[in-house]
Amino acid sequence: MRIVLLGPPGAGKGTQARRLSERYGLPVIGTGDIFRDHAARGTALGLAAKEYMDRGDYVPDHIAVNMVLERLDQPDTREGFILDGFPRTVAQAQALEGALAAGGRPLSAVLNFKIGDEVAVKRLTGRLVCPNCKRVYNLNFKRPRVEGICDVCGHRLEARSDDDEATIRRRLLVYRKETQPLVLYFWERGLLRDIDAEAPEEVVADRTIEALSDLLDLEA
Q1: Residue 220 — very low, low, confident or very high, per pLDDT cuts 50/70/90?
Q2: 135 part of the active site
Q3: Is 160 a catalytic residue?
Q4: Given 2, 18, 127, 135, the catalytic residue
Q5: What value does the mean pLDDT take over residues 115-136?
Q6: pTM above the 0.85 mark?
Q7: Residues in CB range of 213: below 8 A, 6 or more apart
Q8: In CATH, which superfamily holds the domain spanning 2-116+164-219?
């Protein structure tokens, strides 16, 4: 399966991507992680991307496309992948589909996780992330058993620098303006599957599996 995850910041895409990865053995291609890795290594693409990310803006198409397509060329994506955070514009979607078509591996589905803005703000302002295993916690909904420590690997949790309320609201505005056209784009192509993500993690996970059930039947 080759899956794209859509949804505003705070919709739980990263959490559901991890669950799908563990269930089906697919690598998660998280563009935020790719961008931050490039920035940490000081690559030219990474430093350019960081300027936009720090403002809550989207990374320009040409930078994002080059980073992601480079990652999709790696051997672990041969049997499929989960894209979290890409594409974010129609131009990026067209570049992605063109590259995948050239390799004979078209997209299988696009999952659209839907939540309201106020839910997103509440989730993100309390978010803590494990930089080691990528588990996500929340001070309002899903606290770690030991304050500040990951339940799974014991690493100290961190808050993302762009999870302050002003930046979150700006990211939501940018999402509605620039990414929402992707919903129509993928719907027209018969790939879109909507998922109500205003529910506990386990419920959303069940809805996600159900949304993919026809593809799993075909691959069985």
Answers
A1: very low
A2: no
A3: yes
A4: 127
A5: 87
A6: no
A7: none
A8: P-loop containing nucleotide triphosphate hydrolases (3.40.50.300)
